[in-house]
Each structure stands twice: as structure tokens, then as C-alpha cells.
Amino acid sequence: MIIAGNWKMNLNRQAAVSLAQTLDAWCAGNQGKAGQKEMIIFPPAIHINAVHDALSQETAVILGGQDCHPDDAGAHTGDISASMLVDAGCRWVLVGHSERRQNHGESSSLIAAKVSQALKNSLSPMVCVGENLTEREEGHAFDVIEKQLQESLPLKDMGDGKFAGAIAYEPVWAIGTGRVASPEDINDMHVHIRAVLSAMFAGGADTPILYGGSVKPDNAAAILDGKDVGGVLVGGASLSAKDFLAIAES
Ligand code: PGA
């Protein structure tokens, strides 16, 4: 079970460090519970070093980057490479978040190139997919997600059919809106994603599938109960230690 927090473009350095320390202390005091759950946090890139230094050596809190470039190095002003994230202590990277797809015009083929680069660097990609409201209302959600999965996962670079990453299903209309998909809708979509992944590659049967979109302490337990729900990717509620830990306790 993965409990992941996407801090997006929030928190100054001191607040980021303090939040990380609170999560770290909770994990240290909940070894048994933390053993069944992986806690991953995605701080803004500029805080990764400070957060890394604030976490205890043997911490159960795992660090991730919010994005990486498809190239390993070069003239890419403002970008960060997968190898830099690894060097800074990250083990995960978010790829294809809908805010990147929408606000930065990222296509699924670009996302696939980023996933390849992450895998080359032994960085686990958390690949986000999600339909928008029109697509859902017009009944195309399943087709949209299938297409995004097929185009965002670089099968040729996944070698032996294993995938050292995860999928995050995040319906765009549920992100930051307080509008959460119903447990039935989440269930149906996760079963669909599992079928698509299993048909695509051998490891598709075991790839964790997370749900994201307005996950809060009061709806987390019902969501996590769903079939094929391997965890949650939390945005807004991950900025509060109290809320994020309540979700982890669910
Ligand atoms: P939210 O964001 O929990 O604030 O809806 C989720 C996400 O974008 O990962």
C-alpha cells in the first residue's frame, strides 16, 4: 500500500522541512504499520535537498521528484534530470501529472520518454493518467485511460516486462476540486486499468494502481478498500501533517 503526497508548488523551506520531520517521526514510531505502507513525498525540487537532510537515515519516508526531463543532461533551462533526482536521494518521480499535461502541453509520447529516462536511472516512475469531465460525461473515460496508458508506457524500455513503477489514476475533474470519484467509479476504473496493464506487459498484473483526486481523511478508508486500489496520491491534504497522517492511518 502506497501513501503518496504531492506537495506541488507549495511550502517554503522551513515548512517543508518541518512537515517532513513530522512524517519521519510518525513512521519511526509506527514501524509495524509503516511496514505495510510505503510513504512517498514529492516536495518541490528546490526543497528536495533540505527535506532529504531532515529525514533520519533509516527513515521509512521515501523521496520523489515532481517531474524529470527526458534527456539525461544538456541545454534545458529550468529542467531537472532523472539522474539529478537520484543523486539528491529520490527513489520516485511523478510523470504525466494532469497539471503538466494541461499547463505544459505534455503529450503521452513525451511522458513515455520521461518514463524511459527514469527507468534507465533506476528511478521509479509514478505515471499519472486521468480523464477530464467532458470525457467522463460523454462516456469515454475507459477509452481515454486505455489510450493514455498505451501511449505513456514505453514497453520497449521495460525490458523483461516488469515495471518498477506505479500508475496513479487521477480523474482531472476530481483534482483539487473537493469532488471525489465514488468508490464504485474508482473500483470500476482500477479493474479496467488492471486489465489494460495485464494485456500490455507481464508485470501489469502486479503494478500498483493508486487513486488520486481530493483524497481526504474522511474518504480515504472507503477509497483504499476498493479492489485493485494499491494506495492514494494526495495533493492538498498532504500539506497538513495531521490530515496526511490520518489518511496513512486509514
Ligand atoms: P488533490 O490533488 O488531492 O489536491 O485533489 C491530487 C493530485 O493532484 O495529485
Radius of gyration: 17 Å
Q: Cofactors and ligands present?
A: 2-phosphoglycolic acid
Q: Count the helices. How many?
A: 11
Which residue ranges are poorly predicted, with pLDDT under 50 across at least 5 consecutive positions?
none
Fraction of helical residues: 40-55%
Write the layout of secondary structure elements.
Layout: E1 2-6, H1 13-29, H2 31-36, E2 38-42, H3 48-54, E3 61-65, H4 82-87, E4 92-95, H5 98-103, H6 108-120, E5 124-129, H7 133-137, H8 141-152, E6 166-169, H9 183-200, E7 209-212, H10 217-224, E8 231-234, H11 241-249
Bound molecules: 2-phosphoglycolic acid.
2-phosphoglycolic acid binds at residues 6, 170, 175-176, 212-215, 233-237.
Description:
This protein has 250 residues and is of the alpha/beta class. Helices cover 43% and strands 15% of the residues. It is built from eleven helices and eight strands. It has an eight-stranded parallel barrel with strand order 1-2-3-4-5-6-7-8, surrounded by seven helices. Helix 6 crosses helix 8 (141-152), helix 8 runs parallel beside helix 9 (183-200) and helix 10 (217-224) packs parallel to helix 11 (241-249). The radius of gyration is 17 Å and the shape is globular. The model has no long low-confidence stretch (mean pLDDT 94). It binds 2-phosphoglycolic acid (PGA). 2-phosphoglycolic acid binds next to strand 8.
